[in-house]
Predict the 3D structure of the following.
Amino acid sequence: MGIAAALFAGCSSGGGGTVAGGGGGGGGNTVADAVAKGASSVVADKISVLDSSESPPGAGKSTAKPITEFVATADWNKDKTFTYVHDRSTEVFTNVNEILCQIAQTNYVAMAGKGAYKALINQSLCKGNDSASNAGSSQQGDTSASSAPDYNTWTVDSKINAAGQLEAHVWVHEKARSEQNWSEPAKVITAKLVVSKTKDEVPPYGLFRIDFRGFDELTGSVKFQGLLETVQDAAGVVQLRFADKEANGQFEEKAAVIKDSDTSGRGTVYQTGNDNGTPQTYQSNFAFDSNYFRRTNSGEDKCFDRKNFEQSAWRYGLYDFETGDRFTVKSGISYNTKEDGSGTYGWIGYWGMWSPDNGASIVGNTVYNKDQSTGVTTPYTLTTYNGKLKKHTQHSTTLGDILNIPLEGYSEPDSLNPGQMVMYRVIWDGASLVKTAKAPQNMSGPPAWEPLTTPVPLDTSNMRFGGDLNFWSQALGGQVRIPLQSCTYTPGSFGAPGTTSCSNPSSTSPVIFYTEDIVYPGDAVPTTLTCFDNCPQAPTADGMDPLGLTYSQDYTPGFAGHAYTFANMTLKDSGNAGNPALLATAPANQSWGFNSGALVDLATYQAQLDCGNNSGQICGWKGWTLPVFYTWETGPNNWNKLSIVTSGDSVVTFDPPVKVEYTHSQTVNTAADYKYNGVKFFLDYNGFGELHGIPGKCFDMATGQETMDCSGGNKRYVPEFSIAAGSTVKNGTTTYYVKPLEVEQRMVKKDPGVCTAAGVTAPSTALPLPDAATDSVDPGLKGLEPAAEVKVIGGVIQTTTAKSVLRKFLGL
């Protein structure tokens, strides 16, 4: 990731190809037209070297009201589907798109001439989804970090200048950061955007220039600088130029692309960095026409077919079944620490509280939300609890419904080295559970999956770990359990462990998964909760000990578990005088916080926890199998805590991710995703653009070929399939339409001779590249940041309509 990416905090890789699905665009032919019509952007929201060659995923089957009947102003018709082409040589433009993605969220065009304002930019909407780390478990575990929105506050002032250009000034503050042996000081970033021609006038980018610089907030020294611009020569040929560079010289990237026509062009990209003390440099020249793309550098000559590619949709919107309007997840509200709006802005929502200073500037416990349409400011009482109780509710489907969906995490001893455990990827193939790939279990990062030459049936007659199979599945939203039937236990002997034998599952065998809800004040909670594994201990009134977070596992026959009560929104350890189970300082290996084992209502579920065989003993592991259980999360991070606001006696609650059921349709039996035809997926919708749970795969960026092993560098993680526009999903009895918003295309590799025969040859010498140190210009904005109020959140202007929805939600 480049400096611009790290500091403007990024959008997913790729660039500005074609747009489908209605209006939105520049909103007019000229800058003045766009401002008058309130467009969100006038330049490309993404930059692409290559234009996409085909339309995005097509319409799905539906028995709903015809989409063509939606009124023109429906969100379905206004929201664009953006399609772009990805290649290794275009990775440098990831950082360009990270800048453009967040600038678009400021709504600088519609806000032009309305004075300075603040915009809360949700960096999570712009961060790349394609990291190979997404292919495996992360150290965040079951804490709330992985789904929390990541807001940053921008100050923006846009206007039409004396030359008739649209000019926007931007100020961004970044907190100091440190990781292991690496640290960065707090910075203030300034940027100046000048747009002279819109993307309608000079497609596909428009004519614009952005200069940006990052300064050490304390010393004022320059930490990095750069520029992004498009220029047009007398013949009408457009060139894209980009460069950014660290002041210490350890990182630099630059690019130049010339579009000779709508379908042909050439370019050069350059990157240099430092990998654990070793300098790394990449430079590539490339050329393309309407049929082929070719890139070369020392030791590399790759040819790709522009008419033959794979597609992946990265972002989706859900829309009302009848009206075509966006389905909105009520995830939180913004606030200011002072009634007059001169304080610090922040955000409170389902995933916790966010503010630039972690809430340090809040005076007392009152925060303020201003209705921009009426000017009315409403005070709210803010309360933060240093932990949160989460309720897990059971749901089920069948193995027949999840045909071929990858299930991960099942482990067995290595047959060649019994002291080591091997993790397996398992699928239901229609007749049995079979192991399809394996990976070493004792590793960090994404699993290094190795495909099995022949799928191996999972043996349920000789299991070491009980009669239930436990997995993790992205497509089912997390933890998954498959209970087996007719199980018998055989004790071990001579030091060998005991084993359990169960009958084989069938297509009708249940598959259990859970949804999660945060417990709010006033919600009913059992008087006593009991824990049997990973149980928090609080030896002192100060709470948990970072060096001893949990009680030792107790395998004594008849062990009754550790008891807890829940009072004043805090879990209390009954075994330690009711001390609060709170973790103020996390150990280094658990910086994301602590999440407990299952907390169960023993009074209700004791019979279901019985080990059977008339033993009268409780099997604590069965707590994870109950219809309802709880877990406790605590830690030093905002996402480990519960922050709530109240108005009068009413608690403002926020929506968790919405679980939706999707049945995939692919009737072409040669398609890669045909194996999922008719299969049910249970996806999480976190809000506009954020639909999660489609299984993924990895491919090598250098070769463009799919790979089972996601570990190591130079790998990208992409969805296995895309959901077609017009497909439907259900939440209970409510149906929503689905529309892909961002679609990536990856070209299929060809022999270089194919490109040669077609006359496509990459430049033998590099194009002239810009230099950030000499070509970029100081925006001249340092120390000139104006006072302003939040008027845009996540790209949405807080207008009368937006505020009325919020007020209705709050019951005001």
